[in-house]
Amino acid sequence: QAEINYKFNTLLAAADDLQLFKYIVKNVAWRNGKTATFMPKPIFGDNGSGMHVHQSLWSGGSPLFYDEAGYAGLSDLARYYIGGILKHAPSLLAFTNPTVNSYHRLVPGFEAPVNLVYSQRNRSAAMRIPITGSNPKAKRVEFRAPDSSGNPYLAFSALLLAGLDGIKNKIEPAEPIDKDLYELAPEEHA
Q: Distance between CA atoms of 147 and 88, rounded to whole angstroms?
């Protein structure tokens, strides 16, 4: 298992990049007598493979998710965007986690985000705000539930629409959770 990152891009170009990336990886593996899989849970009893989707919004070359005074450096607009994604998350999973195998990954105990909460740094939250330093251009949010079994064009579009609904309707997410969710007692889970 390997984590591979590639350069950010617009929604359509990022979906194109992902399709090309998967095609290249599978073909290089095949040429070398190996098999590459992007299955969410290829091995029972081991951690699965996610496709964490990082997102940010820009207008006229300026980032819209940064506010030095906000929680984790987030603007109100970014917070509403998170609120929209968390509100629509159960429906979004039809696009971001479309297979039965997808749900074998989303179980407690295997470093998968099984709680619909947000947090800075915390990799156990469904929505994470990565630590990016003080550069406003690097401020983004990461939805950690998706896997690569879905259609990236539909998945990325559904995430954007959910986030935009959050902005349009000023959907406030619940308070952020800065505890390690993997260590919470069952009665504390969101």
A: 17
Residue 121 neighbours by CB under 8 Å, 6+ apart? 128, 129, 130, 131, 178
Q: Please give the pLDDT value at position 107.
A: 78
> Which CATH superfamily includes the segment(s) 11-177?
Glutamine synthetase/guanido kinase, catalytic domain (3.30.590.10)
Cα separation, 4 vs 155, whole angstroms: 19
Nearest CA-CA partner of 113 in 141, 138, 137, 132:
141
Say how far apart CA 132 and CA 72 lie, in whole Å.
10
- Summarised one tens digit per residue, pLDDT across range 25-57 is 999 999 999 999 888 887 887 877 888 889 999
Domain ranges of the chain: 11-177
Nearest to 66 by CA among 51, 86, 87, 81: 81
